[in-house]
Amino acid sequence: MSTHPSQQGAPGATNILERVRSCAASVTRYPLDILTADAQLEDELGIDSVKLAEIAAVVAREFKLPPEQLPKAGKARTLGAIAEVVTRVLADSTPVVVVAKPAPAPAPAPVASPGPVAVVDLEARVRAVFARVTRYPEELLTLEADLEDELGIDSVKQAEVLAVLVKELGLVTGPTPSRRLRTIAAICEAARVSLPAPVASAAPVVAVPAAVRPSPAPGVPRADLPFAGKIALVTGSGKGIGKVIATRLARAGATVVVNSFHSREEGERTTQEILAAGGKALHVWGSVAQEEHLERMFSAIDAQLGGLDFLVCNASNGLIGPFDRITPRDWDKAFRTCITGSYECAMRARPLMARRGGGSIVTMSTSMSQRYMHDLGCQGVVKAAVESLTRYLAAELAPEGIRTNCVSAGPVHGELLGMFPDAAARVARWEAATPGRQLCTADDVADVTELLLGSKTQRVNGAIWVVDAGLSGTVDGLLPVATEPRPSRHHTNGHEVRALLALDS
Predict the structure, then answer these.
(1) pTM value?
(2) What are the backbone angles phi and psi of residue 166, rounded to the nearest 5°?
């Protein structure tokens, strides 16, 4: 029987490897028996760089090491490699107890330090402030996670966090949101430069409040509440069309799970509005584009509600702008949210719906998935894939009594239309090109969504229902007004305006 190098030589090396494996298990929730010393983390176990950074952070806390001393992404290919680095760092430093940790002594009152702040202390304080301001679980706030793309913390919320940091750390001038400061690690480095010499010990972490629980279900379903007793998840429902759909389902008697990511506060506000109106709702925060978030979301639904009847895949992401300005990153984000996210939600909903005898799924598309509309190239292409996914889900899930249909909406009055360049002129042109001279509203989309979820369409499966007031049947209004050549993204003057559609992915 071979022995991994990390188990040889240094005293306690085997203990170190086992503790590293336990750290990885706590982050990934994988069984310990598959987390072997030599298993390739990415190729064999599917642990990507984001999850690996989280494992490194947990290992650093376990052994009280600065995270930068642990191997990064490409260099940490196995848990054995991580354990070797930990063993070497511990051997090179002053003696550190690596066996069971003694009971902590009572912490003394914060005392100013005459020297610079320790790396780990500063990082802990910055993460604690992020947790307090954003109300995110601190374990999600890893040092290398992208603040906006992975955590949904937009520039406004970042500015709020940084303002608190400036005050708590006593900075004369503090960091401001920028493309350079995309991670907590980068913010820590920027803050360290501006730190005065004396800094107090770490601020306490404020606990994250529990999710809002639904009010008790009514004893007897009422005739005017067709969805009484039903449980519905609407992704991306903090605002816009998703909010309208969630509110309508609650009004029809369903217990609604409101989900938001970028607009966490709006998701919580939507939940409170439903409860205040006498409905039943709870809020789950998370991105459908991230596996760990999905796992938390559906675990919460299972634990608190025990099943699911309806799923509306409304969360969306995609660049609105000229076709030649779409970057690989734009494509990746759009597909991860609209395709992978919808698929993963459907497959996680599958056992919860089967448990209740079946269910109904509605995906969301655009009528421009089959027609050309200027500046909608990314959305149009990705939503065409959503429609194809809808048909496959319809066939695959039918044996469990689960129907899957799609609402394909045209331009809808609301916040989204304002993201288009020359929005006012475009809306006027679209209205003129629509047979009834009137664009749809979010309520029009909610009407059809409600119908497809309900029993009156129980023989409708795999269908794409267009809701655009007839606009897609015309040509006028879809093409650009200007015909002069546009500069490519490689020849811009630095002043291009890009509108990003990010509806709570």
Answers:
(1) 0.59
(2) -55, -45
